[in-house]
Amino acid sequence: MLALLLAAATLTDQMWTEARPVYDATLQHPYLKGLADGSLPKASFKFYLVEDAKYLRAFSEALEVLAKKAPRPEWAATLRKHSTEAIEAELQLHRSYGIGKHEGAPAPTNYAYMNHLRQPKSFAEGLAAMLPCYWIYWEVGKELVKRGSKDKDYQRWIDQYASEGYGATVRQVLDMMNAEAARLTPAQRRRAIDLFVLSARYEYMFWDMAWRREQWPPSPDLRH
Known about the structure:
- By secondary structure, this protein is mainly α.
- The chain has helices at 2-8, 11-27, 30-37, 42-69, 73-96, 108-118, 123-147, 152-162, 164-181, 186-212.
- It is globular, with a radius of gyration of 18 Å.
- It starts with a helix and ends in a 12-residue tail after the last helix.
């Protein structure tokens, strides 16, 4: 029976099963708990927004690269739409909080995550690596909206990712991933799952980075 259930599971089912411990730990992180109960320091929230604005530039670029590799024209069109309209909507949210375009190096964790997305990958691998950014935010949004937030700014952030409109966007990418799975060998499926889990870990680390307001260590003085 277990073998039959595993055989019937979609690729995204398998991805979520393996990443579930990371997601469960994410929900317990003090950053997300602080969003829900309103205790999150404003400095950590602003730090997150600034770093997210930097991250989204890389995410948008990665979507454009992925669209060029898409095996179906309609998938390419969808991904290009996500790279413009969806990203612009999130950046508009940032601006509504008074966060504009920020220059300067991203924080260490953000830098690593951005480079992870930029690594050359096949279409399936690239989609798998980007999927947690879509999916985990939706799941977090749906969970936190049940709790509500005492802070109106935090509630607005939660509502953005719990919305049906955002959910429809996520479902598009989930359907794309499962359709592409039919063309993958077992080894390619395994690679896609591993990339998904790795990106899920980066998502956890991103919130942890914001909570700690992570900084680069001081540059060494090479004169000594």
